[in-house]
Request: fold
Amino acid sequence: MLTHEQSDTLTEVFNAGVIKAGVALTNLVGHQVRMQVPLVGVTDFTDLHNCLGIGNDLQLVSVCQQFCGTMDGYALLLLSRESGDALTNRLTGSDPGTAPAEAERSETLLEVGNILINGILGTIANTVGDRFEYQVPVYREGSLPLIIGISSCAANCSIGDSHSLYARAQFDIDEARVIGSILILLTAGGFDRLIGLVDGLRGQAKATASGGAAPQTPVK
Amino acid sequence: MARILIIDDSKFQRKCLSRMLGAMGHEVTEAENGAIGLQVHETIKPDIIISDLLMPVLDGIGLLRGLNAKGATTPVVVVTADIQECTREECLQLGAKALLNKPVTVATLETALGRFLPAQTGEKSPC
Ligand SMILES: [Mg+2]
Reply:
């Protein structure tokens, strides 16, 4: 459970990362990318599709990057198959509407995922004064439950853990009709440590402000 | 023209960098990880190395340590998606000349090469 204050602080930290990732993606595709203010929450893995608004049957392409440090977990770039193809074509200079070769799609999206995920995680690390060690990103295709299941298993994140944080950042690129999401999932221990760091940040902010502390109101 | 060694596990990134450097008139050799990069470095004696950090087998940090252990003085420019301040500091401490964040532009690459390529390759001298 997050209080409103924790949720606000987390959203602010993630938002700075999302902006950084958006600039990187804009430079990569050479076209303005619109990044939405991230949605941060706590959920059960089984309810993730509702939080993300992604149907369990939709075929997705994904890039998964595990990280460890003070917080352990993994980040996912999720795109519909069509958006993955459109983004690949845009970056390889291929004709829009054509289906890229498997290898070309995975190679291109792996690097896009790597850049976007690092933009967000790196900003979080720089903000809270922490350091993440990253694993080499992995490309996967399938439904949301399949991708989450395999990625969680690989990263030792237990499925069904009710204290798992998700942060969803959506972006879209008009010209190439790309809509995607970036998800960050933490282990239960990682979640507790992030909340501790966020509370530390809020404490610092309060110390510099002259007003009194507002009461903490739980979210959900 | 300079002899440039690109070390990156991403084929997409190697392709992008090769295209940019080729258009600048440089001779490019590619390696897909730090271990292969160290071997190729021995063979081709590049004027500069452009290296990724996150790679299987041997990463960019391992590459920098390997070059230091051999006493190599080839300038290394790290090109990485990792934007963490502590990563930048570690690379510079290990002797990297610069750290550029992906995606790099032609202008950023040209500036870095101009600063770090040895004068005998015909490039601009260090500023
Ligand atoms: Mg890499």
Observations:
- Residues B 8-10, 52, 54-55 surround magnesium ion (CB under 6 Å).
- Chain A is about 45% helix and 25% strand.
- Residues 102-128 of chain A form the longest helix (27 residues).
- The interface with chain B takes residues 20, 24, 27-28, 91, 107-108, 110-111, 114-115, 117-119, 122-123, 125-126, 131-132, 134, 136-137 of chain A (CB under 8 Å).
